[in-house]
Write a structure and sequence with these properties.
Blueprint lengths: L1 H62 L2 H15 L2 H4 L19 H24 L2 H22 L7
This protein binds heme C.
Heme C binds next to helix 1, helix 4 and helix 5.
Amino acid sequence: MKISMNRKKCSAVVIAAGLISVFLFSVSPVADAAESMAVDARKKLMKTKIGAGMGQMKKGMKAGDTAQMLKGAEMIATAAVKIPAAFEKKEMMGKTRAKANIWEKKSDFDAIANSLAESAKAFAVAVKSGENMAISGALKSVGANCGKCHKMYRAKKKKK
Ligand code: HEC
């Protein structure tokens, strides 16, 4: 008799624990995925479009490849105007180096993104002019916009 009571209690605990874990599993991963999708998307934009565009510009300059330089400029100009929307809502879940002050000074942040787009277009104009001084000056302006925004709005890499 005593044993069977304990069994009942035991199974009640097991069922309760089971229900709790089902609940936790069904709630938290969904929330995590939703949070980190925005973070993923903005990092992807930065890396595969803007960072890669910068790479194309620099490689093109080394190789004297005008088409490659223009391709890089186009990549950045197109992607930079997407930065404001990519950082629309405050999302800090997951692996991110974005600083919370972005969403306190969103219009300033967005303005730097627009300057980046403009500087990439100016770079393309310089490339078409064929003047090396103008090209390297324009590249510096592009780089200055990356630096300006990262300094203000991106946290330093964590030391491992
Ligand atoms: C308007 C602001 C802004 C500008 C302009 C900007 N960045 Fe960023 N960038 C950020 C922020 C914020 C992050 C951090 C995003 C995160 O971790 O969530 C970032 C992250 C990155 C990353 C890392 C992405 C990853 O996979 O984690 C690279 C690479 C990068 N930027 C390159 C560039 C280059 C190159 C330029 C200029 C051509 C540039 N960025 C211009 C705001 C900016």
